[in-house]
Task: structure prediction
Amino acid sequence: MFEDNDFVCRHMQLTKADIVKVIRDKNITSFDDLQDETNVATICGSCVSDIEDILEEEIAKR
Ligand code: FES
Result:
């Protein structure tokens, strides 16, 4: 589990809190949309499954 201030995508310097904020503010429903907004996971891709987990968690809360 990530804490809010942990970097989930080191390459894009995005913390869990940053990602959650974009998901909520833009009402993101897919990984592709999240990537369009943030460029998350566009360098090494090692963060993809963590990002997907966070996205799923947020969608489940709606
Ligand atoms: S850690 Fe996200 S692209 Fe490398």
About this structure: The mean pLDDT is 98. Helices lie at 16-25, 31-38, 48-60. The longest helix spans residues 48-60.
